[in-house]
């Protein structure tokens, strides 16, 4: 199959202090073209005979890119990055409310421009100590803090197992009115969607800190009598290069 390339379109040029500032857009080839590991060739030979000192790429859709500086203007490359999502198992347990304790979302801070919150989880754990949960067997871990006042200023965590987007199945009515994000120890994040009434579509999540396997500590009473599944968000987190594949 033919490998895609990236094509620049210049919209403005400004010369200042012996430098040339160039503003424009870049278009990437789409399917059935393929992505080659290492980046797409993005020739700038038609823009300047000199190598760029800096290339800043911004995506309105939230995609992420990385510039790979080449030896000549014609040999520049752009890597397309993605954030791999990981599945989180939430165990179906008919006696969840007796086997575990409610999990509460606490928003610690708002990000720049207050578009989302960074949060942590609390519960009144049976062992009276902080305990870890994992995203799948052997996967990255998060922490549930033990606090007898976990409900104070916290909001109950819910799971909507029917949401078509696994990364949007966890929800809470946190006090900020914004989606909240839980950072895991590998740099990935769980998204907690803000809903004014998350109990309408979801079921409360409980934390069983006594469970021997930390990836089976999140439990709920499933309406379908099946384990639930959530996923880390592809919106933020540690990014890796897109695998060599057919472009979307």
Task: Give a description of the structure.
- The longest helix has 4 residues, at 96-99.
- This protein folds into two domains: 6-83 and 238-246, no CATH class; 87-231, no CATH class.
- Mean pLDDT is 86; it is low at 244-248.
- 2% of the residues lie in helices and 40% in strands.
- With 248 residues, it is mainly beta.
- The chain is elongated, with a radius of gyration of 23 Å.
- It has one helix spanning 96-99, and strands spanning 6-16, 19-28, 34-35, 40-41, 64-68, 77-82, 87-92, 101-102, 104-110, 117-123, 131-134, 141-146, 155-156, 158-159, 170-172, 180-183, 189-194, 203-204, 206-207, 218-220, 228-231, 240-241, 245-246.
- Strands 9, 10, 11, 12, 13, 14, 15, 16, 17 and 18 form a ten-stranded mixed beta sheet that branches.
- A hairpin with a 6-residue loop joins β9 and β10.
Chart the SSEs and their pairings.
Blueprint: E1 6-16, E2 19-28, E3 34-35, E4 40-41, E5 64-68, E6 77-82, E7 87-92, H1 96-99, E8 101-102, E9 104-110, E10 117-123, E11 131-134, E12 141-146, E13 155-156, E14 158-159, E15 170-172, E16 180-183, E17 189-194, E18 203-204, E19 206-207, E20 218-220, E21 228-231, E22 240-241, E23 245-246
Parallel strand pairs: 7-20, 10-12, 10-16, 15-17
Antiparallel strand pairs: 1-2, 3-23, 4-6, 5-6, 6-22, 7-21, 8-19, 9-10, 9-13, 11-12, 14-15, 14-18, 16-17, 19-20
């Amino acid at each position: 199959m033919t490998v895609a390339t990236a094509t620049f379109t210049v919209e403005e040029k400004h010369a200042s202090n012996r430098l040339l500032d160039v503003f424009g857009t870049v278009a990437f080839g789409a399917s059935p073209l393929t992505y080659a590991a290492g980046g797409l060739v993005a020739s700038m030979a038609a823009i300047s005979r000199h190598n760029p000192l800096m290339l800043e790429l911004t995506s309105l859709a939230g995609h992420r890119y990385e510039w790979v500086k080449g030896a000549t203007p014609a040999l520049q490359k752009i890597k397309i990055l993605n954030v791999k999502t990981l599945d989180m198992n939430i165990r179906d347990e008919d006696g969840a409310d007796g086997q575990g304790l409610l999990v509460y979302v606490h928003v610690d801070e708002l990000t720049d421009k207050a578009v989302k919150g960074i949060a942590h989880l609390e519960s009144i754990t049976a062992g009276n100590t902080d305990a870890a949960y994992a995203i799948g067997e052997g996967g990255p871990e998060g922490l549930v803090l033990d606090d007898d006042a976990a409900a104070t200023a916290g909001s109950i965590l819910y799971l909507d197992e029917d949401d078509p987007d696994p990364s949007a199945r966890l929800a809470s009515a946190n006090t900020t009115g914004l989606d909240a994000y839980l950072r895991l120890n590998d740099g990935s994040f769980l998204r907690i969607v803000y809903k004014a009434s998350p109990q309408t579509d979801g079921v409360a999540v409980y934390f069983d800190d006594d469970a021997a396997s930390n990836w089976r500590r999140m439990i709920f009473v499933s309406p379908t009598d099946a384990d639930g599944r959530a996923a880390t968000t592809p919106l933020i987190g540690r990014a890796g290069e897109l695998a060599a594949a057919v472009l979307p």
